[in-house]
From TrEMBL:
Domain N-acetyltransferase intervals: 19-177
UniProt cross-references to PANTHER family, sorted A to Z: FAMILY ACETYLTRANSFERASE, PUTATIVE (AFU_ORTHOLOGUE AFUA_7G00850)-RELATED, RIBOSOMAL-PROTEIN-SERINE ACETYLTRANSFERASE
Ranges that cross the membrane: none
Organism of origin: Lactococcus fujiensis JCM 16395
Record Pfam families: Acetyltransf_3
Protein name, UniProt field: N-acetyltransferase domain-containing protein
Recorded GO MF terms: protein N-terminal-serine acetyltransferase activity; protein-N-terminal-alanine acetyltransferase activity
Length: 217
């Protein structure tokens, strides 16, 4: 086997039809992301994250600065191309360059991103970079077993459910069972085609409503 180690992610900016995925920057994104991470965010959005929403802008800037400097997790911002506003973020994490595997995590969406073309395309762009630029072998998604929206999102995006790790962690005063999902490199061409078919402008009517659901493809 002619095998070499992978590289760490260095994605700066990639764009699609509806979204832009850009390396998180305090200078560029702080004001927009405070609407996502700050006191106006929905409390239920933080149930399955180790963080809590921020009620102090200076403390938020301190945390965002740490996120910007971090290499693992490697934080990315999701920008709505229509408005040019940052409306969410996620991160490459648990980056195993020796085995060419990594996870997508720390997913924080504003209400504007939920169940949107922008969110789906951003996830697609993140996957494409991992498989086609870094040539990684395995891409993971993990979530709290109780987090059904995240579980369903992983399946919708084409991840394969691999099972539940019982008593995997303790956070926010309770135990967590963790569901594991993955896409591997040999599966990516079919997953890519499926996502591109759904994201095609021809799959949406004049009001932006989908014609065929991603789960149907």
């Amino acid at each position: 086997m002619n095998y070499t180690e992978g590289k760490m992610p260095s994605l700066e900016r990639v764009g699609g039809a509806y979204s832009i995925v850009e390396k998180l920057s305090v200078e560029k994104h702080a004001q927009d992301l405070y609407d996502v991470f700050g006191p106006h965010s929905q409390a239920q959005d933080w149930t399955y994250l180790a963080l809590e929403p921020f009620d102090d802008y200076d403390k938020f800037l301190e945390t965002l600065t740490q996120m910007e400097r971090s290499t693992d997790p490697y934080y990315l911002t999701i920008i709505d191309k229509k408005t040019n506003r940052a409306i969410g973020s996620f991160a490459y994490m648990r980056i195993d360059f020796e085995n060419r595997a990594m996870e997508i995590g720390w997913v924080v969406y504003s209400d504007l991103l939920k169940r949107s073309r922008v969110a789906t395309e951003a996830q697609y762009l993140a996957m494409k970079y991992v498989f086609e630029e870094l040539h990684y072998r395995r891409y993971e998604w993990k979530c709290d077993h109780l987090n059904r929206p995240s579980h369903n999102a992983a399946l919708r995006l084409g991840f394969t459910y691999e099972g539940m790790f019982r008593n995997a962690a303790v956070y926010k005063g309770r135990t967590r069972d963790t569901d594991w999902f993955s896409i591997i490199d040999s599966e990516w061409p079919k997953r890519k085609k499926r996502l591109e078919l759904w994201l095609s402008p021809q799959n949406f009517d004049a009001t932006g409503k989908q014609i065929i659901s991603l789960n149907s493809l």
